[in-house]
Structure formats: C-alpha cells, structure tokens
Amino acid sequence: MSLRIIKTSDGSDTIFNSELNETYHSLNGSINESNIVYIQNGLEYYLNRKKENNIKILEIGFGTGLNFLLTYIFLEKRNEKIYYHTLEPYPLPNEIIKKLNYISKIGNQYGDIFNLSHNLKNDKKNAVTKKIDFLKSKISIEDIALSNNYDIIFFDAFAPSKQPSIWNKKNLNKIYSNMKYGAILVTYCSSGQFKRDLKSIGFEVDVLPGPMGKKEMVRAIK
Ligand SMILES: C[S@@+](CC[C@H](N)C(=O)[O-])C[C@H]1O[C@@H](n2cnc3c(N)ncnc32)[C@H](O)[C@@H]1O
User: Fold this and answer.
1) Could you say which of 28, 80, 112, 153 would form a disulfide bridge with 213 (CB–CB 3.0 to 4.6 Å)?
2) Is 101 contained in some domain?
3) In angstroms, rounded to a whole number, what is the distance separating the alpha carbons of residues 190 and 117?
4) Does residue 11 belong to any structural domain of this protein?
5) How many domains does the chain have?
6) pTM above threshold 0.85
7) For residue range 118-166, what is the model confidence (pLDDT) as tens digits?
8) For residue 53, what is the domain's CATH number?
C-alpha cells in the first residue's frame, strides 16, 4: 500500500492512498470534516436529543484515529459514558501516524490519548478513561459478527466509487440490525444509490448541509 501525507485546506493533514487514488478525508479540511459530520451532526446531535448516558458508537474505518480523538475531546466537557468500537482491517504504519499534525493543530495535551488509541492491542476492550471503553477490531465490516445495540454509527469508509463493496446492502442491513431504535448513522457520503439503499432497509434519511466543499451529508435514523 502506498501512503503519503498531504495537507488539507484547514491546515490539518490527511493521507493519500495511491492504490485507491483516494484520501482519508476531504481535501477541504480533515479536522473540519470530522467535526461537522461525526461530532456535530452525529455525537452532539444524538446526545442532545436522547439524553442517554451509556452510549455505544461503532466506527467503520479507524484510519488516522481523528474521529476518536475528536470524540474524546467533545466528551471532556460532558458526563456521558461511551463505548467506542472501531473497525480497522488495515491499520496505518507507525511511521505515518507519528508524522500526522493533529496534535500540533489541536493541542499537545491530547498527544497521549492519540498515541494510546493507536498503540492499544487490537481486539481487546480497554477502559481508556473513566468515561470511555475502547475496542479496535482488526477486521472488516464484511467479516465481523456484530452483537451490540449501537447508538451511533460513524460510517467513514472510502467512497463508494472506490470501495463499493463496503457500502452494499448486506453490510448496511447488518449495521441496521445492530442499532437501537432511534439510533443514527452519519457519513460524509450522500450518493443517490446509498440513500435509496438506506431507505429500502428501513432508515429514515436526513440530508444535511455538508462540511466545506461538500453540499450534502447524510444522517440516517433507525
Ligand atoms: C476514509 S478512511 C477514514 C478513516 C478514519 N475514520 C480517519 O478519520 O482517518 C477509510 C478507512 O476504512 C478502512 N477500511 C477499508 N476497508 C474496510 C472494511 N472493509 N471494513 C472496515 N474498514 C475498512 C480503511 O483502511 C481506512 O482506514
């Protein structure tokens, strides 16, 4: 796999995968994208609406760990407890992770949690703080047998044009069956086929303004 760090327009890094000819985030700002799609329109929306305490998040694609880092930061000022379960069949090499500029952009105080999230053993649940249980499974969405009633899905796979198999109805059905009623799935993707598939499975699909450079994003509710 050939990977190269590149800068996005908010100054934060992302990674370019030349085999797929695809980046890990929007070129219009990786931190900006993660914050809007997953934190603001996902986690914050859900917590403000559901007022639940022990919530379960499933992330499809841990990658750089940016969504987890921003989740950790968001929860610092709140009392909720979460279980963060993330899937990553192709963990990034350490040489790449070490060079990402998220900590210098966001704050040195977050270096430890960022490194910890990458260094923890795969497939073992850990209490990383009093509020967060964390599990990183080295397995694909296709292969995992899910057994939790998740509250929030961070669907952050590569685009359907690059990895169509991840977005297929079999995976979406599996995810749907492992969500609570009222749970949400958020993603930067708003392709027509994806929205039609979500609806045919039973999701209610909300189309929201996307992060900079992207007209729309999707929040689907079970
Ligand atoms: C668009 S990147 C985003 C990653 C991450 N959320 C981030 O902020 O860096 C997509 C991620 O999905 C992972 N991935 C690829 N195939 C997958 C699969 N079948 N199931 C789950 N994740 C997969 C990739 O290795 C990559 O890390």
Assistant:
1) 28
2) yes
3) 29
4) no
5) 1
6) yes
7) 999 999 999 999 999 999 999 999 999 999 899 999 999 999 999 999 9
8) 3.40.50.150
